[in-house]
Amino acid sequence: MPIQRNMSTNSTIDHCRVPNQLTYETLSWLMMGEFMLGLPLNLSVLYVFIFRFKFWKNKSIFLFNIVVADFLLVACLPAKAYHYHHGMRRSRDTSVCKLMLSMLFLNRGASIAFLITLSIDRYFNVVHLGRRNFVKVLKKSPQISIIIWLLLLPLTIPTMVRTFECCNSHGREVETPYHDVTDTFREVVFFTQIIIPFIILVYCTVRIVNRLRKKTVGEKAKLRRAVWVVMSVVVVFSICFLPCTVARAVLLGFRLWKRQAEEDIAVQVYDSLMVLSYIDCLLDPLVYCFCNSGFKDAYITTFCPMSIQKRLINSDFNLGTTTTPTVSGTRTLSSPIIDK
User: Fold this and answer.
1) Is the dihedral of CA 298, 304, 309, 314 positive or negative?
2) What is the pLDDT of residues 73-90, one digit of tens each?
3) What is the mean pLDDT of residues 129-151?
4) d(CA 243, CA 114)
5) Which fold has domain 12-289?
6) Among 55-64, 138-147, 164-173, 220-229, which is the least confidently predicted range?
7) What is the pLDDT of residues 143-171, one digit of tens each?
8) For every residue of the chain, which 3-state class applies, written as one string?
9) Which positions fall inside the G-protein coupled receptors family 1 profile domain (predicted)?
10) CA torsion, ordered 138, 195, 169, 30, to nearest 10 deg
């Protein structure tokens, strides 16, 4: 059905079709590029975590769960690229549409939950060094990770309980004065799972940076590297999650104000920033290297040529003198702010 732009009500517009074919064809190729880079990268990370680094022995269960979350995202990219390439923002198949949206909700929620938990752990290790760190106890238990996943599952319920137009109908039911509860709850989940964790992340990072700046022991270069460790999560969060959140708020504003022309532009900006947010599956491995030098050394010795292994391994981003062996036998230096 063609898009009827001259109609006055949103109910006559096919919202599943893209407002600009060229834009979405470009986005489809970008997503395929993310998929072709993300799949082998995350497979290699998974191999190292399981067979070389043995994450369950090195207290890196939370990092491993971020890898699992990234696989949920990578699995969705070919289907989304296919729909964009054929002029559709979402699948017209209700089951496929709901499944994809649920997986994306779950990926985003899991990535944020485990990244924030790691940041809180570093906050206690640095700012409240010597006090009991309950996060350190929790992250050693696989059961806690399972509980986090189970707690995230209810967030996908709004995507499953009813059929809504093109998986995205908030603000379009003009015949009723109130928004549908399901659609409203879905939007509340979308915003709160990003805004609240970001506030926590900024608070923890500021306190950690201030604490590190006050330290008088150690070389300044090492302290600067430690600051980069705690800032890496903020950078990934700011690039992957915040821009699309702002764009989503603008999009909903135009939709609720019934400004169709502006909404068409906002939709393209929002979808473009969402495609940009999918690079978290490419950036997260950098976080693993910053957070745990043992993983970094294991990855380098597994996949990098011998000629550059020594140079990369010597470029540590950590402090301290604690020695932790990896499966490959390479030494690993750690500090209280590094996940050991």
Assistant:
1) negative
2) 899 999 999 999 999 888
3) 73
4) 20
5) Rhopdopsin 7-helix transmembrane proteins (1.20.1070)
6) 164-173
7) 788 888 888 888 777 666 655 555 555 55
8) CCCCCCCCCHHHCCCCECCCHHHHHHHHHHHHHHHHHHHHHHHHHHHHHHHHCCCCCCCCHHHHHHHHHHHHHHHHHHHHHHHHHCCECCCCCHHHHHHHHHHHHHHHHHHHHHHHHHHHHHHHHHHCCCCCCHHHHHCCCHHHHHHHHHHHHHHHHHHCCCCCHHHCCCCCCCCCCCCCHHHHHHHHHHHHHHHHHHHHHHHHHHHHHHHHHHCCCCCHHHHHHHHHHHHHHHHHHHHHCHHHHHHHHHHHHHHHCCCHHHHHHHHHHHHHHHHHHCCHHHHHHHHHHHHCHHHHHHHHHHHCCHHHHHHHHHCCCCCCCEECCCCCCCCCEECCCCCC
9) 41-288
10) -90
How crowded is residue 144: how many other Cβ atoms within 10 Å of its Cβ? 16
306-340 residue pLDDT tens: 777 777 666 554 444 333 444 444 444 344 444 44
Per-residue pLDDT for 25 more than 70? yes
Provide φ and ψ at 103, rounded to 5°.
Answer: -65, -40
User: What is the average pLDDT score of the chain?
Assistant: 76
Cα radius of gyration rounded to whole Å, the chain: 22
Domain segments of the chain as ranges: 12-289
- pLDDT over 90 for what percent of the chain? 20
